[in-house]
Specification:
Strand order of the largest sheet: 4-3-2-1-5-6-7
Radius of gyration: 15 Å
Distance between the termini: 12 Å
Strand content: 15-25%
Number of strands: 7
Largest sheet: 7 strands, parallel
Order of helices and strands: EHEHEEHEHEHHEH
Number of helices: 7
Length: about 180
Amino acid sequence: MNICVFLSAADLDDRYTQPAREFAELLGRGGHTLVWGGSESGLMKVVADGVQEAGGRLVGVSVDFLAAKARTNADEMVIARDLAERKALLLEKADAVVIMVGGTGTLDEATEILELKKHGKHDKPVVLLNTAGFYDGLRQQFQRMEDEGFLPLPLSDLVFFAKDGVGALAHLEEWSGLR
């Protein structure tokens, strides 16, 4: 399965890097392909290293202004013109999406993917990996949106919240029929 992971390129502490590495190793050992932003820095590097070392493939989609930070030994690397094209290519190349911890770029990617799913532009599973409760506030906001009628379909049809990488991958494999 080609799994797109949206996540930070920042250097983060162990409470985020260790669970990310464990998830990456699960992906690689499962024979999955990581589709990601292509960066050779921060959490993006941690996940790419873990997938590659565990036997998985890497498909990166960088953007022209970040091309100098792109991983040189990915199995495939595409350089998009801008962030909008990058997001479209990431979604196009993926069978499923996992959102890990990140900043405004990750939040932008997450909300766009969910908006497209809400409007039926894709039906790929989206998992929000809530490492160390990072997305508790976002989950609360999404729940409020659902409760107050802002979502045209149940929140559970848009996104699955997972506590850890095992739960995230189990959900994706169940969806794809691999389990």
